[in-house]
Amino acid sequence: MGVIEDLADALARDTLAAAEELDDERLIRDVSEAIGASSPTTQEAFMTAIRIRTAEMRGRKLLEARIARARQQGV
After folding, report:
1. What is the structure's pLDDT at 63?
2. What is the pLDDT of residue 55?
3. How many whole angstroms separate alpha carbon 56 and alpha carbon 5?
4. Count of other CB atoms within 10 angstroms of residue 11
5. Is-contact 33 46, C-beta < 8 A?
6. How far apart are CA 42 and CA 48, in angstroms?
7. How far apart are CA 46 and CA 28, in angstroms?
8. Distance CA 8, CA 48 (A)
9. Residue 74, pLDDT score
10. From what superkingdom does this record's organism come (predicted)?
């Protein structure tokens, strides 16, 4: 990845963790708007990283639930 993507991804990881810890989903939007005020390119990279990481977390949660259910059923 390039510098913008690396920085945006690091901020996305930190923002997702903080939003979960603080139970504040609005934090993502607030950070996005703050970034967009000075760099729309960075804002888009940030939001892309948020979407990718959120999708990965949902997919992983589904996978883990299916594996756990299969193990409980003795498969």
Report:
1. 97
2. 98
3. 17
4. 18
5. no
6. 10
7. 10
8. 9
9. 86
10. Bacteria
Dist. CA 42–CA 11, nearest whole Å: 10
Torsion of CA 39, 40, 42, 43, to 10 degrees: 120
Listed by start position, the domains of the chain span 3-72
Provide the whole-model pTM. 0.87
Task: Tell me which residue has tokens 């760099």.
Answer: 39
Rounded to whole angstroms, the Cα distance separating 70 from 2 reads: 40
Q: Which two tokens stand for residue 49?
A: 């990283």
Tokens of 20: 């979960």
Tokens of 22: 């603080």
Residue 29 CA to residue 67 CA, distance in Å, equals 33
